[in-house]
Design goal:
The chain is mainly α and 97 residues long. The chain folds into 2 domains: 1-61; 63-97. Helices cover 68% and strands 4% of the residues. The protein has helices spanning 5-29, 41-58, 63-85; strands at 34-35, 39-40. The protein has a two-stranded antiparallel ribbon. A hairpin with a 3-residue loop joins strand 1 (34-35) and strand 2 (39-40).
């Protein structure tokens, strides 16, 4: 029996949380750190991203839109990084520093 769209969405939400947790552990404890009863942080992250992609593949979504968005997101992130590195980015308001 196939999973319903709503069931897939619930699983997708859960997987997003697991990706967040794994990425946070990479930052907090080290990308290559092997943690007891957890594993190597970046390997766990890869596993969780695989789970997330597996569920997203099962959803009835526009694959062309997904691929276009993936490419645009990376391009935008690189553009923002260049702006920050060249200080073309406006300085934050004093109250938020």
């Amino acid at each position: 029996m196939a999973l319903t769209r709503d069931e897939l969405l619930v699983i997708l939400i859960e997987e997003c949380g697991e990706v967040i947790q794994a990425a946070t552990k990479c930052l907090r404890f080290g990308y290559n750190r092997d943690q007891p009863d957890y594993g190597i942080n970046h390997e766990v992250l890869a596993h969780e991203i695989g789970d997330l992609l597996g569920i997203s593949d099962a959803l009835p979504l526009n694959r062309e839109r997904i691929e276009c968005s993936r490419q645009q997101k990376l391009a935008k992130a690189m553009k923002v990084k260049r702006m920050v590195e060249t200080e073309d980015c406006p300085q934050p308001i004093a109250a938020y520093r």
